[in-house]
Every structure is written in C-alpha cells, then in structure tokens.
Amino acid sequence: MIDVIVAGGGPTGMMLAAELRLHGLHALVLEKEEEPAAFVRSLGLHVRSTEVMDQRGLLERFLAHGKQYPVGGFFAGIAKPPPERLDTAHPYVLGIPQTVTDRLLAERAAEVGAEIRRGRELVGLSQDEHGVSADLADGTRLRSRYLVGCDGGRSTVRKLLGVGFPGEPSTVETLLGEMEVTAPPETVAAVVAEVRKTQLRFGVGPLEDGVHRVVVPAEGVAEDRSAPPTLDEFKQQLRVVAGTDFGVHSPRWLSRFGDATRLAERYRTGRVLLAGDAAHIHPPTGGQGLNLGIQDAFNLGWKLAAEVDGWAPEGLLDSYHAERHPVAADVLDNTRAQMQLMSTEPGPRAVRRLVSELMDFDEVNRYLIEKITAIAVRYDFGEGHDLLGRRMRDVELKGGRLYELMHGGRGLLLDQTGRLSAAGWADRVDHVVDVSEELDVPAVLLRPDGHVAWAGEDQRELVERLPTWFGAAAG
Fold first, then answer.
1. How confident is the model over 448-475, as a mean pLDDT?
2. Which residues have a Cβ under 8 Å from the Cβ of 81 and sit 6 or more positions away?
3. Which of 2-6, 176-180, 398-402 has the lowest mean pLDDT?
4. Which residues does the UniProt record annotate as the domain FAD-binding (predicted)?
5. Nearest to 135 by CA among 5, 239, 261, 309
6. Among candidates 275, 408, 295, 407, which has minimal Cα distance to 50?
7. Across the chain, how many H-helices and E-strands are there?
C-alpha cells in the first residue's frame, strides 16, 4: 500500500512529497497535467520560505537562480525602507519565477525518492478506517494510507470531500501575461510610472529577449475564469488604462486572476487532508500565496510521517489544522486590507495615505513586514518562554550553523549546558551540544519545522514536553 498520495504536483505538493520522503514514506504525486505550467504567477520567496529552504539544505540551488531584494514595499505596494535588523539571517526577498521554483522542488522530490506521475487526474475517492481509495480518470484505482489534496483553488479533492469553502467571490479581475512590446523602453517606463500613481494593479516590466511581463485590470469578471484572455483583450485594456497598448505582440502565455478570498472549513477529513490553494485562495497582493502553501507542507509533512510511522502522540495530526488554519485566515485578512488600499476610490485612497504615514514609524513598518514574510507566525503552545511557538532563526554555533543541523527533518535539542538528555527519543530527536553568542537561553527543543517546542534548562521539564510532540519514549 502507498503511504501517502499527494494530489497535485505544484510547489505545495512537491514540497510535501519531499518532506515525507525524509522519513522514508512511499509518497506518490499525481499531477493531472502532462507538463509543468509555463505561466509565472509567483515571483519570489519571502523570508520564511527562504528559511525553510535553508533548513532542508536547498537554499544554495535557489540562490543560484534568484536575486535578492530589500523587503520594503510589499504591503499594498507602499514603498518604505526595509526595517533594520529583522529577526532572520535572510533579510531579503528572493526574486525567482514560479516556474523555476516548481522545477527545483520537483527535482528535490525526485532526488529523495518520491514517485511522480504526470498526466494522472484524480476523479474520485473514498476512505475507510484503514486507508483511502483514489480513482483516476484512466480507470486506475490506487490505495494509500493517507491522501493530501494539493490540487489548487478549484481542488477536486476538496469538492469530493464536501468541505465548505466560504468566503467572497471575485469582484475584480486582472490580466497577466508575458509578451513582446514595440514601444521604446523609455516610453514604457514613463507611462507605467504615471499610471501607477493611481492604478496599482497595472505594470509592464522587462524580462529578457524583449519579452515583458504585463499586468492590467480586466474590464470585468469573466464568466469562464478558466479560459485565458486573448491578446486583443490585453490590447483593449491597455489602451483603456494606459492610453496605449505599447505595441504588444507575440505572447508567450496569457492568464487571468481574480480577488476571490476563501478558506476551507477544515483541513482534515479522516485520512484526507488539504494544503496550499486547495485550502485557501486570496488575491496575490503581498506575494504570499505560494509561500503559504510551501509552509503548509512544511508543517504537515513530519506530522503525517509520524502518524504513518506509528509514533505520533494523540492530536499531532489535528494540530496541522489548529496551527495553519489561523495563519491562512490572517493572510486572507491582510490581502483583503491590501486590496482596499489599492483601490482608486477616494475613501480607500485616503486610508492608504494614512497607512503610509503610520508606516513611517519603524514599529508599524516592521509589524507589517513580519506579517507578510511570515516570520511573525507564532503557534499556540501554551504558557512559557517568549520563544515558545515561534520559529527559531538561524544562528551561528561554535561548530557551524543551526539550520545545517536540520537538513534531515528530525527534531533537535540544542543544548548549551551539556547537562540535558533526550535519550528516550534518540530515534526522533537529535541532541546537539554546542553554544551560540546569539542564543540567550540555555537550551531549546525544536520541532522538525523549526518551531520552538520548549526552552529552558530543567531536565524534568524537558522530559515532560518531549512526548507532546515526539510521542512516548522508546522502551
């Protein structure tokens, strides 16, 4: 029997499959498309996703294909200087096209042994107390212990489960594509600068070989959202919004997206779970969508592996919904707010001016940047140390870096005292005795996703906390 079927081979699905493989599970990715998508929705990785790649030893391959940018200007496009001394070793946004991110994560999943089948569409599923049966469009039936729907905003898995997806439908639509332009660069730059004084959902930017990425508000909301726009539709809207179509021609690809905002009522139904856009959709303001999905997978992978391997404590798998559902709700709220601030109406523009003034205060600017980049996420682990529930930033140790110790996806006890022990959990938790000038707590217990499960120096407290996340001690 397959351990976990992952329905959907986008960044969330490939990240999840790779995480499951770190624990030796048989992970099968089913992707209905024969070839990876050619269009570029996401343009980069935020701080937390960059940290995730570093924690798994993947960052160098991403850095080789990306460009580092300051983290300012991501809240509703309000340009402010980046805050000083963000709580991270990676205080930048990594500009990298989604097509490259997709490829790198697919390569990673294949490297660690995930099985990837393209051109395989899931059309039905059923489950019982022992596993899940998945029916494919070609008549094949597969059997697995668990199944995770990472199959996008129109998720078949979510619909088959009957999980509610409440929220708001799209009220505005935006056209997005890559095409060549004949207008001179100085003309394009001047027109874009002028239009963006009032219309922030507009942009024309050069890529390479004369190709530009073009973003322009649509006339309305299409009845068939899955149908791509035409080049003539692009030209018409460019003339309406910018007064010129820039001579656009020879499109590579054309797409459309809306501002629908929806959140699945539950992330788990028995042995079937949801992650990424299958669990939440929202406008792309702030560039959070792909990042949110990758971080879902990072939270879920080790928990699902623990369940399959038989050592998961009671409630561990349910903590996936408990932790990630509120994070997505917060992202939906901040994208709603950003969309209002990008409106051309007088009221929202007045609020935008006020928010811009408030962002001149470092505390406000920092708060919003930490929200967008997800480094402010703190899970509710109850009362305790200030670090409890937060992800641990990378720190320099005498023997190297913290994140270098986390490539295997196991728990980690970083012990600066040399007096602690996690002996009963040695098959699930690495115990490293080392010191850091950047860490002002005697010891920390980190979950495989880097969040602090315990901090202190009392062995009895440590032993009381270990079973919460890592199950019973080995006999």
1. 96
2. 70, 72, 365
3. 176-180
4. 2-335
5. 5
6. 295
7. 12, 24
Given a contact cutoff of 8 angstroms between Cβ atoms, the answer to whether 437 and 396 are in contact is yes
Q: pLDDT grade, residue 40 (50/70/90)?
A: low
Question: What gap in Å lies between CA 95 and CA 45, rounded to an integer?
Answer: 7
**DSSP code for 182:** -
Range with the lowest mean pLDDT among 42-51, 156-165, 326-335, 449-458? Answer: 42-51
Domain spans in the chain, listed from the N-terminal domain onward: 2-167+262-373, 173-258, 396-470
φ/ψ region of 471 (left if φ > 0, alpha if ψ in -120 to 50, else beta) reads left
Please give the CATH number for the structural domain made up of 2-167+262-373: 3.50.50.60
Beta bridge partners of 253: 178
Query: What distance separates the 2 farthest-apart alpha carbons in the chain?
Result: 74
Dist. CA 325–CA 306, nearest whole Å: 20
Q: Per-residue b/e over 118-134, b at no fewer than 16 CB within 10 Å?
A: eebebeebebeeebbeb
The span from the CA of 170 to the CA of 118, in Å, is 30
SS3 at position 59? helix
pTM: 0.94
CB atoms within 10 A of CB 100: 15
What pairing do the DSSP bridges indicate for beta strands 261-263 and 167-168?
Answer: antiparallel
Q: Give the Cα separation of 471 and 428 in Å (integer).
A: 9
Instruction: State pLDDT tens for residues 158-217.
Output: 999 999 999 999 988 999 999 999 999 999 999 999 998 888 889 998 887 788 999 999
What is the bridge-based pairing of β-strands 211-217 and 173-180?
Answer: antiparallel
Radius of gyration of the chain (CA): 23
pLDDT one-digit tens code per residue, 444-457: 999 999 999 999 99
The CATH class of 396-470 is: alpha beta
For residue 373, the surrounding DSSP H or E stretch is helix 362-373
Say how many Å lie between the first and final Cα of the chain, rounded. Answer: 28
Q: Which residues make Cβ contacts (< 8 Å) with residue 222, sequence separation at least 6? A: 173, 229, 256
pLDDT category of residue 427 using cuts at 50, 70 and 90: very high
d(CA 407, CA 392): 15
The top-level CATH class assigned to 173-258 is alpha beta
- The residue length of the chain stands at 475
Query: For residues 431 and 426, what is the distance between their CA atoms, to the nearest angstrom?
Result: 8
Task: Please tell me whether residue 87 adopts helix, strand or coil conformation.
Answer: coil
